[in-house]
Amino acid sequence: MKNYQEQLTNYLPEIEKYLTSVLLEETKIEITSFETVETGAFLESMDKDDIFILTRDEVSNSDVICILDKHWFAILSSIMLGIDESSFNEVTKDLLKKFSSELSTTLSKKMTEDGFELDLLEMEVLTLKHLEEKLSHTEYFFGLMEVEGLSDDKIKAAALFGNPEAVLVKEEPEEEIEEEVKDESGFEEKNSEQMEKIGTPQEVISGRYIEFEDFDETTPAIKNGDGNSMDLLKDVEMDVSVELGRIELPLGKVLQLAKGSVIELEKLAGEPVDILVNGQRIAHGEVVVIDEHFGVRISNLITTRQRLAKLS
After folding, report:
1. Which domain covers residue 256, as residue numbers?
2. Beta-carbon contacts of residue 70 (< 8 Å; ≥ 6 apart)
3. How many domains, the chain?
4. Rounded distance between C-alpha atoms, residue 284 and residue 275, angstroms
5. What is the pTM of this model?
6. Where would I find the beta strands (DSSP E) of the chain?
7. Could you tell me if residue 243 is inside a domain?
8. 259-312 pLDDT per residue, tens
9. Quick count: other Cβ atoms within 10 Å of Cβ 266?
10. Is residue 267 in a domain?
C-alpha cells in the first residue's frame, strides 16, 4: 500500500498542472487519507450520485478508479462547454470520458518517462449501480483527496487502486446437464411431435440476395474509446448575445413608454458589457465598430469560481 501512496503523492504536481491548464484555475490537491478497504465496505460508503472512472493496468493486474462527486459536472461543463450542467447525462458522460482520457494520457507519458511500464485499458464512466460488476478485487487501496482553488469550498475526489494480491474470483454458473432417457431397448425416447416429423418433406424456404450501397468516404463516423465523441458537439448551435445593461421598471412606467422615451440603465457609461452564451454570462467586453457593424472585444473571462457561485 505504501508504494501506491508514494506514487500518488509523487504525481500530484502533474495532476495539478493538468487541472490548472484545463480549468483555468490554479489548483492545489491534498491527500487527506490513504487506507486499505474491503470492496463491500467501500461500496456502502459511496454516494449514489458519485461517478466512477474505471480503467485497468494489465501489467500490474490492478483496477485503477477515479471517484468524482456531482460538483465536478458543473465545473467541467462550465469551463469546457460554456454551459452549467449539474446532472449525469450523455453530455457530462462524454465530457468526463474526454477529461479522464486526456489526464490518463498525460500521466502515462510522465510515468513511462520515469521508467514505469503501463498498459491501461479503455476508460469507462460508471455509476455506483454498474460499478460492482466491473470490480476485480476484494480489497482496494483508497486515497481520499481535497482539491482547492476551483470553488469557495474544497472539492472532493478519490483514487482507488486494486490490490493485485486480492483478486476477486468470480464463480461461473454451472451448466445443467440434461440426462437422456432411454427405453429398455437402449434407444433414446423422442418427443412424439419429433417422431411425426421424421420422413415428412421439409418446407423449402427461398431467399434472395440483397446488396446494400457502400457508404461514402465522406460519411461521418461516430468514434468512441478516445473521447472523439465530443467532436459531435462542436457543430451544436449556441446563442451568443451581448447585454448592454438591465433595469427593473414597475408596470405603470412600462405602460407609459412611447416613441422617444429614454430608459436609463443601471450600468454606467464606459463599463464593460456582458457576453452570454445560451443565457449564461461567460465574459466581459467592450463594444467596437468593425466596418459598418457593431462587434465586441473580450476583455476578460468569467472565472470558474464566479460561475459556480451563481449555481449555489
Report:
1. 238-311
2. 49, 50, 51, 86, 87, 88
3. 2
4. 6
5. 0.54
6. 28-38, 51-57, 62-68, 124-127, 139-148, 155-162, 240-243, 273-277, 280-290, 293-301
7. yes
8. 888 888 888 878 888 898 888 888 889 888 888 888 898 888 876 666 656 555
9. 9
10. yes
